Amino acid sequence: MGVDVRGRLVALCCLGGAYHAFDDICTHRGCLLSQGELEGRAVVCPCHAGAFDVTTGEVLEGPPPEPVRTYEVRVSGEDVEIAS
């Protein structure tokens, strides 16, 4: 899912019970990663099929030239908090 964190577009996903947050904008053409598919630890960009590791932000499959930034996530009660 995509969320706005203080004006920054961030994608949030839950993988194996752990939450992960990363920039929602693909470094290739600016597509929204939150609209892509989650395949294991990889989020696949819906525009050109580039893939990023949701835990590290690293590029797993081109064409994206750069990784995406990741953010710390904390669960506090029923709230999911993302560090900015």
Query: In angstroms, what is the radius of gyration?
Result: 12 Å
* CATH-defined superfamily: Rieske [2Fe-2S] iron-sulphur domain
Residue share in helix? under 10%
Number of domains: 1
Q: Shape from CA axes?
A: globular
In the CATH scheme, what's the topology name?
Answer: Rieske Iron-sulfur Protein
Low-confidence stretches: none
Tell me the major beta sheet: 4 strands, antiparallel
Order of strands across the main sheet: 1-2-3-8
Q: Determine and state the CATH class.
A: Mainly Beta
- Helix count from the secondary structure assignment: 0
**pLDDT averaged residue by residue:** 96
Report the portion of residues in β strands: over 45%
What is the level-2 CATH architecture name? Answer: 3-layer Sandwich
Separation of termini?
A: 17 Å
The SSE order reads EEEEEEEEEE
Structural class given helices, strands, pairing? mainly beta
Number of strand segments = 10
Can you describe what's shown?
It is a single chain. With 84 residues, the chain is mainly β. It is 0% helix and 48% strand. The chain is built from no helices and ten strands.
